[in-house]
Amino acid sequence: MSDADRPSVYGMLPAEVDTLVLEAGGERYRADQLLRAVYRDGIRGFEEARQLPAGLRERLAELATVTPAREVRRVVSEDGLTTKLLLAMTDGTLIETVLMQYPAEGGRHPRSTVCVSTQAGCAMGCVFCATGQMGFERNLRAAEIVAQVVTVAGLLRDRGEHVTNVVFMGMGEPLANYAETIRAVRILTDPRAFGLGQRHITISTVGVVRGIDRLAGEGLQVGLAISLHAPNDALRRRLVPTAGPHSVSELMAAARRYFVRTGRRVTFEYALIAGVNDSETTARELARLVRGTGAHVNLIPVNPTAGGFARPARRQVLAFERVLREAGVNCTVRVEKGTEISAACGQLRTDAAAPVVIGEAEARGPASGRGPGARPAGPSRAPSRSR
Ligand code: SAH
Ligand code: SF4
Question: Are residues 157 and 55 in the same domain?
Protein backbone atom coordinates (compact mmCIF):
# COMPACT_ATOMS: atom_id res chain seq x y z
CA MET A 1 0.00 0.00 0.00
CA SER A 2 1.36 3.43 -0.79
CA ASP A 3 1.43 6.16 1.84
CA ALA A 4 -1.54 7.88 0.27
CA ASP A 5 -3.71 4.75 0.58
CA ARG A 6 -3.08 4.21 4.27
CA PRO A 7 -5.17 6.21 6.69
CA SER A 8 -3.41 8.64 8.99
CA VAL A 9 -3.70 8.14 12.76
CA TYR A 10 -4.24 11.92 13.06
CA GLY A 11 -7.61 11.45 11.38
CA MET A 12 -8.74 8.59 13.64
CA LEU A 13 -11.02 8.80 16.64
CA PRO A 14 -9.65 6.84 19.61
CA ALA A 15 -12.17 4.03 19.03
CA GLU A 16 -10.78 3.72 15.50
CA VAL A 17 -7.24 3.58 16.87
CA ASP A 18 -8.42 0.73 19.12
CA THR A 19 -9.63 -1.14 16.04
CA LEU A 20 -6.39 -0.42 14.20
CA VAL A 21 -4.26 -1.75 17.05
CA LEU A 22 -6.40 -4.87 17.40
CA GLU A 23 -6.15 -5.43 13.67
CA ALA A 24 -2.38 -5.11 13.94
CA GLY A 25 -2.43 -7.80 16.60
CA GLY A 26 -1.92 -5.58 19.64
CA GLU A 27 -3.88 -5.52 22.88
CA ARG A 28 -6.25 -2.69 23.73
CA TYR A 29 -3.87 -0.94 26.14
CA ARG A 30 -1.40 -0.60 23.28
CA ALA A 31 -3.84 1.83 21.66
CA ASP A 32 -3.55 4.11 24.67
CA GLN A 33 0.21 3.91 24.44
CA LEU A 34 0.08 4.72 20.75
CA LEU A 35 -2.25 7.69 21.31
CA ARG A 36 0.06 9.05 24.00
CA ALA A 37 3.05 8.63 21.72
CA VAL A 38 1.24 10.51 18.96
CA TYR A 39 -0.24 13.36 20.97
CA ARG A 40 1.98 13.67 24.03
CA ASP A 41 5.37 12.73 22.64
CA GLY A 42 4.78 13.94 19.08
CA ILE A 43 6.16 10.89 17.25
CA ARG A 44 6.51 11.41 13.54
CA GLY A 45 6.36 7.76 12.55
CA PHE A 46 5.37 4.45 14.18
CA GLU A 47 9.05 3.48 14.44
CA GLU A 48 9.45 6.23 17.05
CA ALA A 49 6.80 4.70 19.35
CA ARG A 50 9.35 2.87 21.47
CA GLN A 51 6.75 1.82 24.02
CA LEU A 52 5.34 -0.59 21.44
CA PRO A 53 6.93 -3.92 20.53
CA ALA A 54 8.85 -3.78 17.25
CA GLY A 55 6.55 -6.29 15.58
CA LEU A 56 3.47 -4.24 16.39
CA ARG A 57 5.12 -1.07 15.12
CA GLU A 58 5.85 -2.78 11.83
CA ARG A 59 2.31 -4.09 11.44
CA LEU A 60 0.89 -0.67 12.28
CA ALA A 61 3.07 0.88 9.59
CA GLU A 62 1.60 -1.56 7.06
CA LEU A 63 -1.94 -0.53 7.94
CA ALA A 64 -1.69 3.19 8.66
CA THR A 65 0.60 6.22 8.65
CA VAL A 66 1.54 9.16 10.82
CA THR A 67 1.41 12.25 8.63
CA PRO A 68 3.18 15.21 10.21
CA ALA A 69 2.96 18.42 8.23
CA ARG A 70 6.21 19.59 6.69
CA GLU A 71 7.21 23.03 7.81
CA VAL A 72 8.18 24.99 4.73
CA ARG A 73 8.58 28.41 6.31
CA ARG A 74 8.30 30.01 9.69
CA VAL A 75 7.92 33.73 10.28
CA VAL A 76 7.86 35.28 13.74
CA SER A 77 6.48 38.73 14.51
CA GLU A 78 8.74 41.34 16.00
CA ASP A 79 7.32 40.91 19.49
CA GLY A 80 7.78 37.15 19.21
CA LEU A 81 4.13 36.49 20.06
CA THR A 82 2.81 35.56 16.61
CA THR A 83 4.26 32.78 14.52
CA LYS A 84 3.05 31.97 11.05
CA LEU A 85 3.83 28.60 9.55
CA LEU A 86 3.61 27.67 5.91
CA LEU A 87 2.93 23.94 5.99
CA ALA A 88 3.02 21.36 3.22
CA MET A 89 0.52 18.51 3.40
CA THR A 90 1.68 15.08 2.26
CA ASP A 91 0.53 15.76 -1.32
CA GLY A 92 2.36 19.09 -1.37
CA THR A 93 -0.72 21.26 -0.83
CA LEU A 94 0.33 24.40 1.04
CA ILE A 95 -1.60 26.00 3.85
CA GLU A 96 -0.93 28.49 6.59
CA THR A 97 -1.32 28.04 10.35
CA VAL A 98 -0.80 30.74 12.95
CA LEU A 99 0.21 30.58 16.61
CA MET A 100 -0.89 33.57 18.67
CA GLN A 101 0.42 33.90 22.20
CA TYR A 102 -1.12 36.11 24.84
CA PRO A 103 0.82 36.71 28.03
CA ALA A 104 -0.94 36.40 31.40
CA GLU A 105 -2.95 39.55 31.96
CA GLY A 106 -5.54 40.79 34.40
CA GLY A 107 -5.89 37.46 36.17
CA ARG A 108 -6.12 35.56 32.88
CA HIS A 109 -3.82 32.65 32.27
CA PRO A 110 -1.40 32.96 29.37
CA ARG A 111 -2.82 31.54 26.17
CA SER A 112 -1.26 29.86 23.17
CA THR A 113 -3.90 29.80 20.48
CA VAL A 114 -3.55 27.92 17.20
CA CYS A 115 -5.46 29.32 14.25
CA VAL A 116 -6.06 26.41 11.86
CA SER A 117 -7.05 26.25 8.21
CA THR A 118 -9.86 23.97 7.11
CA GLN A 119 -9.48 24.41 3.36
CA ALA A 120 -6.67 25.29 0.97
CA GLY A 121 -8.10 28.55 -0.35
CA CYS A 122 -11.79 29.40 0.01
CA ALA A 123 -14.73 29.54 -2.36
CA MET A 124 -16.62 32.24 -0.48
CA GLY A 125 -14.85 35.17 -2.10
CA CYS A 126 -15.27 37.75 0.66
CA VAL A 127 -13.93 40.88 -1.00
CA PHE A 128 -11.58 41.93 1.80
CA CYS A 129 -10.05 38.50 2.48
CA ALA A 130 -6.76 37.33 0.95
CA THR A 131 -7.81 33.67 1.17
CA GLY A 132 -11.03 34.48 -0.66
CA GLN A 133 -9.04 36.23 -3.36
CA MET A 134 -6.92 33.15 -4.06
CA GLY A 135 -9.97 31.00 -4.76
CA PHE A 136 -10.70 27.42 -3.71
CA GLU A 137 -8.16 24.65 -4.00
CA ARG A 138 -9.50 21.77 -1.91
CA ASN A 139 -10.95 20.73 1.42
CA LEU A 140 -8.53 19.58 4.10
CA ARG A 141 -8.98 16.19 5.73
CA ALA A 142 -9.44 15.98 9.50
CA ALA A 143 -5.94 14.49 9.70
CA GLU A 144 -4.58 17.60 8.01
CA ILE A 145 -6.39 19.91 10.42
CA VAL A 146 -5.14 17.89 13.40
CA ALA A 147 -1.61 17.85 11.91
CA GLN A 148 -1.56 21.67 12.10
CA VAL A 149 -2.27 21.60 15.83
CA VAL A 150 0.22 18.78 16.40
CA THR A 151 2.89 20.79 14.56
CA VAL A 152 2.35 23.84 16.75
CA ALA A 153 2.15 21.67 19.86
CA GLY A 154 5.61 20.30 18.95
CA LEU A 155 6.99 23.79 18.57
CA LEU A 156 5.58 24.78 21.98
CA ARG A 157 6.70 21.54 23.64
CA ASP A 158 10.30 22.49 22.88
CA ARG A 159 9.77 25.57 25.06
CA GLY A 160 7.94 23.74 27.82
CA GLU A 161 4.60 25.23 26.74
CA HIS A 162 1.41 23.79 25.31
CA VAL A 163 -1.57 24.63 23.13
CA THR A 164 -4.41 26.16 25.19
CA ASN A 165 -6.91 27.10 22.46
CA VAL A 166 -7.73 26.31 18.85
CA VAL A 167 -9.66 28.66 16.59
CA PHE A 168 -10.96 27.60 13.20
CA MET A 169 -10.22 31.00 11.67
CA GLY A 170 -7.44 30.26 9.22
CA MET A 171 -7.86 29.63 5.52
CA GLY A 172 -11.23 28.39 4.37
CA GLU A 173 -14.80 28.07 5.56
CA PRO A 174 -15.04 25.35 8.25
CA LEU A 175 -18.76 24.70 7.78
CA ALA A 176 -18.27 24.20 4.04
CA ASN A 177 -16.02 21.27 5.02
CA TYR A 178 -18.36 20.14 7.75
CA ALA A 179 -17.64 16.45 8.31
CA GLU A 180 -13.86 16.80 8.38
CA THR A 181 -14.04 19.87 10.61
CA ILE A 182 -16.23 18.11 13.18
CA ARG A 183 -14.08 14.99 13.08
CA ALA A 184 -11.02 17.17 13.76
CA VAL A 185 -12.85 18.84 16.67
CA ARG A 186 -13.69 15.44 18.15
CA ILE A 187 -10.10 14.21 17.86
CA LEU A 188 -8.70 17.44 19.29
CA THR A 189 -11.08 17.34 22.25
CA ASP A 190 -11.06 13.62 23.05
CA PRO A 191 -9.21 13.03 26.34
CA ARG A 192 -7.60 9.92 24.84
CA ALA A 193 -6.36 11.92 21.84
CA PHE A 194 -5.29 15.58 21.90
CA GLY A 195 -7.44 16.29 24.95
CA LEU A 196 -8.27 19.98 24.59
CA GLY A 197 -11.37 21.27 26.41
CA GLN A 198 -14.31 21.81 24.05
CA ARG A 199 -14.76 25.30 25.41
CA HIS A 200 -11.25 26.10 24.24
CA ILE A 201 -12.27 25.71 20.62
CA THR A 202 -13.99 28.32 18.46
CA ILE A 203 -15.36 27.78 14.99
CA SER A 204 -15.74 30.85 12.82
CA THR A 205 -18.19 30.79 9.92
CA VAL A 206 -19.11 33.19 7.17
CA GLY A 207 -22.71 32.19 7.93
CA VAL A 208 -23.57 28.76 6.56
CA VAL A 209 -26.97 28.46 8.26
CA ARG A 210 -27.43 24.72 7.73
CA GLY A 211 -23.97 24.13 9.16
CA ILE A 212 -24.70 26.27 12.22
CA ASP A 213 -27.83 24.23 12.92
CA ARG A 214 -26.00 20.94 12.46
CA LEU A 215 -23.24 22.14 14.76
CA ALA A 216 -25.79 23.09 17.40
CA GLY A 217 -26.99 19.48 17.37
CA GLU A 218 -23.55 17.86 17.79
CA GLY A 219 -23.66 17.97 21.57
CA LEU A 220 -20.40 19.91 21.59
CA GLN A 221 -19.53 22.92 23.72
CA VAL A 222 -17.45 24.72 21.13
CA GLY A 223 -17.69 28.46 20.67
CA LEU A 224 -19.27 29.85 17.51
CA ALA A 225 -18.25 33.06 15.78
CA ILE A 226 -20.32 34.37 12.87
CA SER A 227 -18.67 36.77 10.45
CA LEU A 228 -21.42 39.37 10.09
CA HIS A 229 -19.63 42.50 8.80
CA ALA A 230 -22.86 44.38 8.05
CA PRO A 231 -26.21 44.94 9.74
CA ASN A 232 -28.28 44.76 6.53
CA ASP A 233 -28.49 42.58 3.44
CA ALA A 234 -27.50 45.15 0.83
CA LEU A 235 -24.24 46.01 2.55
CA ARG A 236 -23.49 42.42 3.56
CA ARG A 237 -23.92 41.12 0.01
CA ARG A 238 -21.36 43.64 -1.21
CA LEU A 239 -18.78 42.31 1.23
CA VAL A 240 -19.73 38.63 1.29
CA PRO A 241 -20.83 37.82 -2.27
CA THR A 242 -21.91 34.31 -1.27
CA ALA A 243 -24.22 35.66 1.45
CA GLY A 244 -26.91 35.65 -1.22
CA PRO A 245 -29.21 32.91 0.02
CA HIS A 246 -28.97 33.88 3.68
CA SER A 247 -30.34 37.15 4.95
CA VAL A 248 -28.99 38.89 8.02
CA SER A 249 -32.19 38.06 9.87
CA GLU A 250 -31.79 34.35 9.05
CA LEU A 251 -28.26 34.51 10.46
CA MET A 252 -29.51 36.17 13.63
CA ALA A 253 -32.12 33.44 14.01
CA ALA A 254 -29.49 30.72 13.52
CA ALA A 255 -27.27 32.38 16.15
CA ARG A 256 -30.22 32.42 18.53
CA ARG A 257 -30.92 28.72 17.93
CA TYR A 258 -27.24 27.92 18.57
CA PHE A 259 -27.36 29.79 21.87
CA VAL A 260 -30.60 28.12 22.95
CA ARG A 261 -29.36 24.62 22.14
CA THR A 262 -25.80 24.88 23.43
CA GLY A 263 -26.01 27.61 26.07
CA ARG A 264 -22.97 29.20 24.45
CA ARG A 265 -23.10 32.84 23.51
CA VAL A 266 -22.29 33.60 19.92
CA THR A 267 -19.70 36.14 18.81
CA PHE A 268 -20.31 38.30 15.76
CA GLU A 269 -17.17 39.29 13.94
CA TYR A 270 -17.27 42.59 12.16
CA ALA A 271 -14.39 43.66 9.92
CA LEU A 272 -14.44 47.47 10.05
CA ILE A 273 -13.70 49.01 6.66
CA ALA A 274 -13.18 52.74 6.22
CA GLY A 275 -16.06 54.42 4.41
CA VAL A 276 -17.90 51.13 3.85
CA ASN A 277 -19.40 49.80 7.10
CA ASP A 278 -17.87 52.03 9.79
CA SER A 279 -20.29 54.97 10.10
CA GLU A 280 -22.06 55.72 13.35
CA THR A 281 -25.38 55.26 11.55
CA THR A 282 -24.29 51.74 10.65
CA ALA A 283 -23.19 51.21 14.26
CA ARG A 284 -26.67 52.19 15.46
CA GLU A 285 -28.26 49.79 12.98
CA LEU A 286 -25.94 47.03 14.22
CA ALA A 287 -26.74 47.88 17.83
CA ARG A 288 -30.48 47.55 17.17
CA LEU A 289 -29.87 44.16 15.56
CA VAL A 290 -27.67 42.68 18.27
CA ARG A 291 -29.03 44.37 21.41
CA GLY A 292 -30.70 41.96 23.79
CA THR A 293 -29.38 38.81 22.11
CA GLY A 294 -26.55 38.43 24.63
CA ALA A 295 -24.16 38.06 21.72
CA HIS A 296 -20.73 39.61 21.71
CA VAL A 297 -19.45 41.81 18.88
CA ASN A 298 -15.79 41.59 17.95
CA LEU A 299 -14.69 44.53 15.84
CA ILE A 300 -11.71 43.81 13.58
CA PRO A 301 -10.24 46.88 11.90
CA VAL A 302 -9.70 45.39 8.45
CA ASN A 303 -6.22 44.13 7.69
CA PRO A 304 -4.64 45.11 4.44
CA THR A 305 -5.02 42.66 1.54
CA ALA A 306 -5.06 43.06 -2.21
CA GLY A 307 -8.71 44.14 -2.06
CA GLY A 308 -7.70 47.73 -1.44
CA PHE A 309 -9.89 48.24 1.61
CA ALA A 310 -8.63 50.58 4.29
CA ARG A 311 -8.78 50.44 8.03
CA PRO A 312 -10.78 53.25 9.64
CA ALA A 313 -8.91 55.84 11.70
CA ARG A 314 -8.56 54.88 15.35
CA ARG A 315 -11.08 57.49 16.50
CA GLN A 316 -13.65 56.12 14.04
CA VAL A 317 -13.16 52.62 15.47
CA LEU A 318 -13.63 53.98 18.98
CA ALA A 319 -16.71 55.96 17.97
CA PHE A 320 -18.24 52.82 16.43
CA GLU A 321 -17.46 50.85 19.56
CA ARG A 322 -18.95 53.58 21.77
CA VAL A 323 -22.28 53.48 19.93
CA LEU A 324 -22.51 49.73 20.51
CA ARG A 325 -21.47 49.96 24.14
CA GLU A 326 -23.92 52.75 24.90
CA ALA A 327 -26.66 50.62 23.42
CA GLY A 328 -25.70 47.89 25.89
CA VAL A 329 -24.00 45.64 23.34
CA ASN A 330 -21.08 43.61 24.61
CA CYS A 331 -18.24 44.59 22.33
CA THR A 332 -14.45 44.45 21.95
CA VAL A 333 -11.94 45.61 19.38
CA ARG A 334 -9.71 42.74 18.38
CA VAL A 335 -6.09 43.28 19.28
CA GLU A 336 -4.40 42.70 16.00
CA LYS A 337 -1.60 40.24 16.03
CA GLY A 338 0.87 39.54 13.30
CA THR A 339 -0.21 42.14 10.76
CA GLU A 340 3.40 42.90 9.85
CA ILE A 341 3.98 39.28 8.91
CA SER A 342 0.59 38.99 7.17
CA ALA A 343 -0.55 36.49 9.75
CA ALA A 344 -3.58 38.48 10.86
CA CYS A 345 -7.22 37.72 10.06
CA GLY A 346 -7.85 37.46 6.38
CA GLN A 347 -4.23 37.76 5.31
CA LEU A 348 -3.50 34.09 4.79
CA ARG A 349 -2.81 32.96 1.27
CA THR A 350 -0.40 30.55 -0.29
CA ASP A 351 -0.58 31.38 -3.95
CA ALA A 352 1.49 34.56 -3.73
CA ALA A 353 4.83 34.74 -5.46
CA ALA A 354 7.51 33.66 -3.01
CA PRO A 355 7.91 36.67 -0.78
CA VAL A 356 11.25 37.90 0.42
CA VAL A 357 11.27 37.11 4.11
CA ILE A 358 14.07 38.33 6.29
CA GLY A 359 15.20 36.14 9.15
CA GLU A 360 12.89 33.26 8.42
CA ALA A 361 13.75 29.85 9.72
CA GLU A 362 15.13 27.60 7.05
CA ALA A 363 12.80 25.20 5.36
CA ARG A 364 13.20 21.98 7.26
CA GLY A 365 12.60 18.36 6.58
CA PRO A 366 10.52 15.91 8.58
CA ALA A 367 12.56 16.34 11.75
CA SER A 368 11.74 20.03 11.96
CA GLY A 369 10.26 21.79 14.91
CA ARG A 370 11.91 19.55 17.45
CA GLY A 371 15.04 20.09 19.40
CA PRO A 372 17.20 23.14 19.79
CA GLY A 373 17.86 25.22 16.75
CA ALA A 374 14.42 24.63 15.32
CA ARG A 375 13.42 28.19 16.12
CA PRO A 376 14.91 31.23 14.49
CA ALA A 377 17.58 32.73 16.73
CA GLY A 378 15.43 35.72 17.56
CA PRO A 379 12.20 37.29 16.49
CA SER A 380 12.54 37.67 12.76
CA ARG A 381 11.36 40.73 10.97
CA ALA A 382 9.41 40.29 7.84
CA PRO A 383 7.97 42.67 5.32
CA SER A 384 4.30 42.49 4.47
CA ARG A 385 3.49 39.75 1.99
CA SER A 386 -0.13 40.40 1.39
CA ARG A 387 -0.01 40.11 -2.36
N1 SAH B 1 -14.24 31.44 6.78
C2 SAH B 1 -14.47 31.73 8.14
C3 SAH B 1 -13.23 31.61 8.99
C4 SAH B 1 -11.95 32.13 8.42
S5 SAH B 1 -11.84 33.87 8.24
C6 SAH B 1 -15.09 33.09 8.30
O7 SAH B 1 -15.16 33.84 7.34
O8 SAH B 1 -15.56 33.38 9.40
C9 SAH B 1 -11.61 34.40 9.93
C10 SAH B 1 -12.05 35.83 10.20
O11 SAH B 1 -11.22 36.78 9.54
C12 SAH B 1 -13.46 36.11 9.70
O13 SAH B 1 -14.20 36.80 10.66
C14 SAH B 1 -13.19 36.98 8.51
O15 SAH B 1 -14.28 37.78 8.18
C16 SAH B 1 -12.01 37.79 8.98
N17 SAH B 1 -11.32 38.48 7.92
C18 SAH B 1 -11.14 38.10 6.65
N19 SAH B 1 -10.40 39.00 5.98
C20 SAH B 1 -10.10 39.98 6.85
C21 SAH B 1 -9.33 41.18 6.77
N22 SAH B 1 -8.73 41.54 5.65
N23 SAH B 1 -9.24 41.95 7.87
C24 SAH B 1 -9.84 41.56 9.04
N25 SAH B 1 -10.55 40.44 9.17
C26 SAH B 1 -10.68 39.66 8.09
FE1 SF4 C 1 -13.50 32.44 3.10
FE2 SF4 C 1 -13.74 33.40 5.60
FE3 SF4 C 1 -12.09 34.56 3.81
FE4 SF4 C 1 -14.73 34.77 3.50
S5 SF4 C 1 -13.52 35.61 5.21
S6 SF4 C 1 -13.26 34.29 1.88
S7 SF4 C 1 -15.41 32.79 4.20
S8 SF4 C 1 -11.89 32.53 4.65
Answer: no
For residues 104, 181, 39, 57, the Cα torsion angle rounded to the nearest 10 degrees is -170
Same domain, 123 and 207: yes
Which CATH number does the domain housing residue 136 bear?
3.20.20.70
How far separated are the first and last CA of the chain, in Å rounded?
40
**Rounded to the nearest whole angstrom, what is the distance from the C-alpha of residue 126 to the centroid of ligand 2?**
5
Distance CA 39, CA 36 (A): 5
Residue at 370 is within a domain: no
Q: Is 331 labeled as catalytic in the residue annotation?
A: no
Q: Do 176 and 45 sit in the same domain of this protein? A: no
Residues 111 and 16 in one domain: no
Beta pairing, strands 136-139 & 165-168:
unpaired
Instruction: Kindly state whether residues 248 and 318 are assigned to the same domain.
Output: yes
Range(s) of the domain holding residue 28: 3-63
CATH code, 39 = 1.10.150.530
Residue 16 is a catalytic residue: no
Q: Are residues 46 and 141 in the same domain?
A: no
- Number of domains forming the structure of the chain: 2
Counting ligands in written order, the one closest to the CA of 115 is 1
Number of H helices, E strands in the chain: 11, 12
* pLDDT (tens digit per residue) in 197-237: 999 999 999 999 999 999 999 999 999 999 999 999 999 99
pLDDT in tens, 141-173: 999 999 999 999 999 999 999 999 999 999 999
Residues with CB under 6 A from ligand 1: 126, 128-129, 169, 173, 204-206, 227, 269, 271, 300, 302-303, 305, 345-346
Say which of 96, 137, 180, 340 is annotated catalytic.
Answer: 96
State in Å: Cα 344 to ligand 2 middle.
13
Backbone angles phi, psi at 267, to 5 degrees: -105, 135
Let me know whether 131 and 54 are in one domain. Answer: no
What does the pLDDT look like over 295-314, one tens digit per residue?
Answer: 999 999 998 877 789 999 99
Q: Ligand 2: which atom is nearest the Cα of residue 171?
A: 8
Non-local CB neighbours of 149 within 8 Å, separated by 6+ positions? 114, 116, 163, 166, 188, 194
Measured in angstroms, how far is the CA atom of residue 161 from the centroid of ligand 1?
A: 27
